[in-house]
Amino acid sequence: MSKPSMSKPFELSPLPYDEDALAPAISARTVEFHYHKHHKTYVETLNKLVAGTRYADMKLEQIVRTTAGRETEQEKKIFNNAGQVWNHDFYWRSLSPHASKPDGKLAQAIERDFGGLDALLKQFAAAGTEQFGSGWAWLVSSAGKLSIAKTGNALDPMARHTNCLLTVDVWEHAYYLDYQNVRAKYLEAVIGKLNWEFAAENLASEDHPVRAAA
Ligand code: MN
Prior knowledge:
Bound molecules: manganese (II) ion
Shape: globular
Largest sheet: 3 strands, antiparallel
CATH class of the largest domain: Alpha Beta
Radius of gyration: 17 Å
CATH architecture of the largest domain: 3-Layer(bab) Sandwich
Structural class: mainly alpha
Strand content: 5-15%
Number of helices: 8
Number of domains: 2
Number of strands: 3
Strand order of the largest sheet: 2-1-3
Order of helices and strands: HHHHHEEEHHH
Helix content: 40-55%
């Protein structure tokens, strides 16, 4: 969604479906807390942090890329909140209440790079389970080649210019109400909700980048 420049503050992106649409994989109560409390707080905190700074007129992606790896406490805070806003926007769009399957170029790439969808999903769930502490599991592409990645806390592959196709949030707040400490069960359920149409759009966008120069 494009917005005119100088349109700060950042806004909480609309949830692309109803709060109960992902149940039982993710309950309405989890979505309510995750979206209306956690995600919203990252947006509000980011707006407070960037007000009056050189980041106030940057696009979200540019803020993430500019502050990634910076050492000052203020830049770390901006990175963490900007990263989490981007990651959560991407997470909600990575999931869908409608069952989908990869097809076309995406299906071919999955066959070539993983040997099939089952192997991809197994690696994806393993990455999410193995991520130590808070973080994210990702399906990414580099020059069209697919791979699985995991990142800690607010970090995302986009910060290092890697093209992201899908993500799953593995912070405890994403699953604790539904699965308590059993992250693997959450991952097992949530990989059935992945939005393969969104993944295909993101794979195609690597060939035709529309992103602003960072
Ligand atoms: Mn989260």
